[in-house]
Amino acid sequence: MTYAGAEPKVARRKRSAIARYAAPYLFISPWILGFLFFTLGPLVFSLTMSFYDWPVVGERSFVGLENYRSMLFEDPQFWESLWITVKFAAIYVPFNIVMSFLLALMLHHITFASGFFRTAFYLPSVISGVALVTIWSWIYSREYGLLNFMLSFVGIEGPNWLGDPNLAIVAIIIASLWGLGGTMLILLTGLKAIPKELYEAATVSGVPGWAQMVFITLPMLGPMLLFTFITSIISAFQQLTIALLLTKGGPLGSTYFFAMYIYDNAFKYFDMGYAAAGSWVMFIIVLMLSLGVMRWSAAWVYYEGEVRQNDGENNA
Q: 55 burial class (0-12, 13-18, 19+ CB within 10 angstroms)?
């Protein structure tokens, strides 16, 4: 009788244990399914496509690494578009971070209508790319644009912003910086998380404002600056919408970014395998840059938990 009664109890315990451990996975199953079907699946599919001659219409054939070899060693447009993207990133990334930091610093010290100003500066970052391009195409218009209209008041003849190869990429950088509200909001959150006691103690000790900025604000913002640095690099390499709609890669290919090169191979020349190979080359480049930044960040990013741990080891 004892053994017969014990079996149902053990079975119930096993079922309850399974239900207890399965419940969390059941709750996150929508995310897991979404990741499998909309992230991991397309990644594996695009990697497979990169090893094929994959026209939209016609027979597909396995070519191995031929797409990569042809792109790296036989396609000058690949290197030209990559160089334009690198130049864009070299200007856009530091400007995006510095301007976002200064804007966040200003909003951090504003007490009157701070919520209104935060919303006003963040709002442009949520505007659709098409609407953004429509606004900036009017601003940059040579005949009736707002920018040249303002320059005419001081006696300056406005240039052809989108028709000059030397000015077109500058125009795209300025239009891209219009959406720095997201980066600004991240840094503003970091500024508000810095303990006020640090500034109070520094002020009592006679530390000047610039020193507080260098030795308190920037070190405490290190992790968020690192995050915004990496995301800005990714955003720069993915630049497509503004350049595609504003200049279409011109004039004279001066704004033909690497993402546009991939786009043309996929939807203009309908060579999906070649475009997929370009996407993976971009992924590897961005990954290597991100890993390099992460390794470099060890010299300047401050993590409070690590410092406390080291202090504890030293005290021991």
A: middle
Q: Which tokens go with 301?
A: 């990013």
Asked whether residue 81 is assigned to any structural domain, the reply reads yes
| Residue 60, CA atoms < 13 Å, CB-side half-sphere | 15
CATH of residue 180's domain is 1.10.3720.10
> What local confidence, expressed as pLDDT, does residue 43 receive?
93
Residue 17 has pLDDT above 90, yes or no: no
- Judged against a pLDDT cut of 80, whether residue 119 lies above it is answered with yes
Burial track 147-158 (b if 16+ CB lie within 10 A, e otherwise): bbeeeeeeeeeb
Q: What pLDDT, on a 0 to 100 scale, did the predictor assign at position 13? A: 63
Q: 215 lies in which domain range?
A: 74-303
Residue 51 pLDDT greater than 60, yes or no: yes
What's the total number of domains in the chain?
Answer: 1
Q: Is residue 13 part of a domain?
A: no
What is the average pLDDT score of the chain? 87
Contact predicate 244/72, CB 8 Å: no
Query: Domain for residue 37, yes or no?
Result: no
Task: Indicate the pLDDT class of residue 297, thresholds 50, 70 and 90.
Answer: confident
Report the sign of the C-alpha dihedral through residues 185, 188, 190, 192, in that order. Answer: negative
In a domain, 69, yes or no: no
Give dist(CA 75, CA 176) in Å, integer: 28
Give mean pLDDT, residues 264-277.
94
